[in-house]
Amino acid sequence: MANWNGQSPPTPKHQKGKVIRVGDVIGKQLPNFGPYREQREELLAAHNQRTELLATQPGQHRPVVQPKKPVPRIKDLIGHAVSRIGAYGELDNKQQAVALIDEDLCINCGKCYMACNDSGYQAITFDPKTHLAHVTEDCTGCTMCVSVCPIIDCIQMVPRTTTYTPKRGIPVNTDKKEPIGYVY
Description:
alpha+beta
């Protein structure tokens, strides 16, 4: 707790409480429903037969840590961020974030897909067979998907690794001819 920043600790990776993740065993993700669930169970059973289960140590549980200093009161925090508020022009537009969906935590509900498509960005695709959501390069970092996701830490905002070029409407007419749709 010495480095505690007041936020909840990150959610550990899990698949129904199991330490083994299917993606680590077979190298690809499978959803946890229908025929895919049966395929997952078969793959994990085969993996468990090949592995010496008693030789592994049980997963370590996170110990309960008591704070070394008092937790701040709400009235002590009010106005604490005012000094960090600035004008839009002071922001560095090169520091953009995009959504990253953790397929191990995802429950395949499709809420992120619906929120992204309904808001007009359409940056999340949803595989019709596996129901796995995937964020495309069109993500603007609006965090709409994060706000509707029912699983904490399933969707995280990570720094953008590529240059973002907005794709908005009809491109600007750069040649000096008449504008598109010009009527005489």
